[in-house]
Amino acid sequence: MKNIIFDIGNVLLDFQPETYLKQYFEPSVMGDLMMIIFSSDEWIELDMGTMMIQDAIQSLTLKHPHYHDEIIFVMETWTHMMTPLEDNVAIVRELKEKGYSLYLLSNFHKEAIKTMFERYDFFKLFDGGVISANEHLVKPDQKIYKLLLERYHLQPEESVFIDDMLANIKMAEELNIHGIYLPYQSDLRTELQKRHIL
Predict the structure, then answer these.
(1) What is residue 109's predicted lDDT score, i.e. its pLDDT?
(2) Which residues form a coiled coil (predicted)?
């Protein structure tokens, strides 16, 4: 194994919008905002890179005027919930020291990923990556996996992909990339030790 490919949300950075919204809103409002924002077509468009944040805010507030201020607040501040999962970030550093090549493969908004890269130094450890919004492709579309392999000349059999969504892992495995399904708060170190990577 030579290449370790990481998803970002809930693998490297905490992404728990319900927990975040509970700090600011009562349960009924929190539930509405979860659906309105994080289950919206606009959220998918942001991941696809076919919409920018101000466009999404305009679209969502027009559709849901009774939550105008709440939508703006969440859309302008949600990246603050994305804090490093420190155990996994420590593993990234170990893998780098051991000589593995490290890559990112993530569904992420264009403006938000720029913020993350500026906010957290550990992203400099990565040798490259493919972010959905920059390519207008999202996982589990196999094209985004193939793009990563081709861009960095990776052999799938020499690569392992870590993601918290089973559908994304299944697609990787269809392309002969080894998969590690990592549900939120699972132990990545144990999974890597099982495969003799750590």
Answers:
(1) 97
(2) none
**CA end-to-end distance (rounded Å), the chain:** 11
As a whole number of angstroms, the distance between CA 141 and CA 105 comes to 12
CATH of domain 3-14+83-194: 3.40.50.1000
Query: What is the DSSP annotation of 98-143?
Result: TT-EEEEEE---HHHHHHHHHH-GGGGG-SEEEEHHHHT--TT-HH
* Residue 143, pLDDT score: 98
Residues with pLDDT less than 70, the chain: none
**What integer pLDDT is reported at residue 48 of this predicted model?**
98
Residues in CB range of 87: below 8 A, 6 or more apart: 188, 189
The residue ranges of every structural domain in the chain are: 3-14+83-194, 17-81
pLDDT above 70 coverage of the chain, percent = 100
